[in-house]
Specification:
single chain; mainly alpha; Rna Polymerase Sigma Factor, Chain: A; 2 domains; globular
């Protein structure tokens, strides 16, 4: 579960050291509240929900300390190996576009498309209705389509791989 938790922590925080802290806090809270885990349910959903809750609490406390407004989390992911294959360059571009999504859309995209959770599971983790998950995903797809470069769109239509 640690790699999955770390990926989600990175999606939420956009910073490696904060993702590490989130994973650690999630593990500690899960151990402290182990009796709350319902046998026969999915451990991954429970842990992701704990991490989401910790992240929201951290955002709230930062807003209180800083006054008001959203916490600036505009940090891009970096990739090692500048000379790596074009696929990795494309992956970096996709990640950059996904990172530019509003936080609610970004975390919904991650849980649904990267972690492969169902709409219902994503809704339960985020404590939102399934319809909101569907709405966020639709809005994210539209936003991603809008930010696609004309060259990328023409390559897609001609079937060329970039």
């Amino acid at each position: 579960m640690l790699p999955r938790l770390w990926r989600y922590g990175l999606v939420l925080s956009r910073q490696k050291h904060l993702a590490d802290d989130l994973v650690q806090a999630t593990c500690v809270r899960a151990l402290e509240r182990a009796e709350q885990f319902v046998a026969g349910t999915r451990l991954d959903r429970w842990l992701l929900a704990i991490m989401h809750s910790i992240w929201l609490n951290e955002l709230r406390s930062q807003r209180v300390r800083q006054g008001q407004g959203f916490v600036d989390a505009e940090h891009e992911l970096s990739f090692d190996g500048e000379s790596q294959a074009q696929d990795e360059v494309l992956a970096a571009q996709v990640i950059k576009r996904v990172n530019a999504l509003p936080e609610a859309q970004r975390e919904t995209v991650f849980l649904t498309y990267v972690e492969g959770l169902s709409y219902k599971e994503t809704a339960e983790i985020l404590h939102i209705p399934v319809g909101t998950v569907m709405s966020r995903l639709a809005a994210a797809r539209l936003k991603l389509a809008e930010t696609a470069t004309p060259r990328a769109m023409s390559d897609k239509s001609t079937g060329e791989r970039r």
